[in-house]
Structure formats: structure tokens, C-alpha cells
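Possible regression after last week's pipeline update?

I re-ran a chain I had predicted before the update to compare outputs. Posting the input and the new output here so someone can diff against the archived version. Not blocking, just want to make sure nothing changed silently.
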Amino acid sequence: MALNEDLGGSLALHTAAENNYSADNDITAQLIPAENMAEARVISRERAVFCGQPFVEEVFAQLTANLAEQVKIKWLVKDGERVEANQPLFMLRGSARLLLTGERAALNFVQMLSATATAVRAYIDKLQGLEKPLALLDTRKTIPGLRAAQKYAIACGGGHNHRAGLHDAYLIKENHIAACGGIAQAVDKAKQLNPEKPIEIEVETMDELNQSIDAGADIIMLDNFDLTTMRKAVELTADRCLLEASGNVNLDTVRSIAETGVDRISVGAITKHVRAIDLSMRFL
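New output (post-update):
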């Protein structure tokens, strides 16, 4: 789909075997003689956690799927590694036209995924040395169409993936509860429909917490609880289910939230507030 955007293909077709874009649609690259070969180096212009290797490989694999000449990639770092400013990340060798045609799609993936991985690692660094380890989770607040990619970056940064979407786990929120007629009713219905799926309930009060425990929730999300109330919730729950903290989580608050004893912390900012990492590709 990224190549289709650049090369004017149909967005309905986006596999290597079925693409209908053409590298010949890069009219600027056509200024270069077809036989010209080139070598290029990609660097990061700032400190980051690198992520995006399989996406770069797929960009050039699709561009050269029906060609005898392939683009060769030499990796100088691995996904999940910290990199410094001006550090080389990978080398490319092949048709000068194809290197330039694939440059922006490949770097767009790396700059966004590295940004996500970098944001996660900043949170993970804040959580080192905790008496009780916990999982830092992502959310569904992802870039449309790129959730799987961002969740991959979360894992590379040291975080954990929450549910992939609406299909693999229950997350029963305020409006679900109201529409179902209550917490107990929502949980009972969930168990009837999909007994094998984990059930998580978002609560805003201690009373709702008690109701959720009694209803048999697997996970309870404490929505915007203050630290004092969060500690009370941990004591009350006594490991009868997992507790997840959500809301008002940032780099300044994540450590104190973790120290309340919750099992998980979910952070939307690590996918929705990211700033692209500055990269550069130069021919040698």
C-alpha cells in the first residue's frame, strides 16, 4: 500500500504477486540511465531505538519481485538496538533508480517504527529495578492501517501488546456496561458468547471494582485512579485478578503508578504521540 501511494497503483492490490504499480511511474528516477548502479547508506540523525528491518526488506522485495536485479541490503544494526546520532543503520546496493524509488517508503516505515520503539524504551527505562515487575502495554490508539507494524515496534522497544483488536479479547467499558444493564450482566453475556476469551472491565470507582471482582473478570482496568485509590485497589483485589492502570500515564508519572503494585500499565502515548526519527539516505 505504501508503494501504491507513491507509484499510482490501485490500493485494492498490495501484494508482491498482485501489485499493479510500476517503478516506471517514478518519473524523477527515469532521469537516471537504467543501467546505473549505486550504493547508499542510511543513517539516523538522532539517538533512537532502531526498528523496521522487515519493512525495509519488503519494500525492496516488492519493487524487484519481477526483476532479475535485486537490491542488496547490508544491516549494520538490529531491531531493538539503541543507535546514536549519525550512526549508519544499513547499506543498500542495486539499481540507482530502484534505490531512489523505494527510499521514501522504506524510510517512512523506519522513522515511524523507530519512533514508536524509542518512546516505549523511554518508559521501560523508568521502570527498571521495581520490586514487583509489570508489563507496559500498548493500546488500540494506533496509526490507521499500521497497527500490526506499531505493535511489532512496541515489542522491539521492550513493551507488551494488549489485544490486537476487537476480536481477540473483551474490554468492557462504561458505555458497554450501560448498554448491557450492568457489570454482572455484561460479564455473564461475554462468558456465554466466548468463554475462552479473556474479560477485562474498565472501572472508575471502588464500587465498580468490587462488582467486577464478584462478576469474575480476568483483568480490571483502573481508569484515572489517583495513587492512593490505586493502592487501595491493589490491596482489595489481593491478586484475585490482574489490575491494569490507565489514564494520566506519562514519563513523569509511570514510575509512581508502577510502585502502587498494579500488574500492568497501558499507555496510548507510545503509539499516538510519537515523532518521527530523523533519517537520511545518501549515495556513496
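Follow-up from reviewer: compared with the archived run. The longest helix spans residues 96-126. Marking as no regression found.
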